[in-house]
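Batch 3, record 17
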Amino acid sequence: MDDIRALKPNQLDALREVANIGAGHAATALSQMIGGTIMISVPRINVQALEDVSPMVASPEEPVAAVLLHMFGDLTGRTLLVFPRDSAIRLAEMMLRRPQGSSKELGELEQSAIKEAGNILSSAYMNALSDFMGMMLLPSPPSLAIDMSAAVLSSAYLQFTSDRDFVFCVESEFILQESEERLRGLFLLLPDPESLQAMLRAVRVS
Amino acid sequence: MRVADYAVGARGDMLSTLGLGSCVAIVLYDADAAVGGLAHILLPDAALARDAGNPAKFPSTVVPLMLREMQARGARQSRVRARIAGGASMFANLIPKGGVNVGERNVAATRAALADAGIPLDAEDTGADHGRSVFFSLDSGSVEVRSLKRGTRVL
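Prediction for the assembled complex:
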């Protein structure tokens, strides 16, 4: 694929469908892990110039916890899971079976729980894609960053992509609705440009 | 100020750019004239990008551009000095052995662009693995670098 901006509407639909299947499986894995119902949004496809990528949380300086993994095999790219800091803390509490409010910060144990959550979600997402497209996909070990959202995102995009002008990402939002709070996370699939064409071939959309 | 952008200002202005990761902020300042500029570069050089149309994306093109605009507002090149911040490596354990580290390359390319323009580099807060925001006061000439992990540092 020479230009990721040239994708046709039916190709975008197909990619959205693929992402929906992946996110569905990841949501199931997450809800089993923490015991609660997780809702997912309809996946959104973003094709943007690097300098135009808007912060996906409130402000460019808002602290987030982000887990990045490489995807290897028949497709290459990355998956990125982003939680606003408060959601990350709550997620860690749920994974560690601790009462709400027991964690005030993202210490070593909490960080390890979030990394594990990223691992499980990404693996579930990739497994679903593997099955659906008849491909082999393998995740790398996870890498965690807790920092300003703009710094984390621009680094994740810039450092690893082969296209340093445009970002192509498929974004799904996870929402856990508990009695009075909302745990929110974003899952991004960042396929390398060469892999987009392979995905479209696998789902037979030209 | 946005990513891959720059601005020039004078007395009374405050220039800032938020959430730098592997990007680098370049501060140029002529203290006598109280004229300065701030750029937020994205990539070390145009060879890494297909769309090289935006000069503010790269240090080698934005430094001369900022200098010209600063001179138009009364700065003198011989008095201009530089400070830089950014160029972090996040998710560094995922970079393959021998692979390009964009943060490090951005810092190296920025130093080279400043040397080419003959501008002395007075101070820097670069590298490591954390994000930074930069606040540049044209009145005092002070450059504050804020990070979530290390707090505030004045360059």
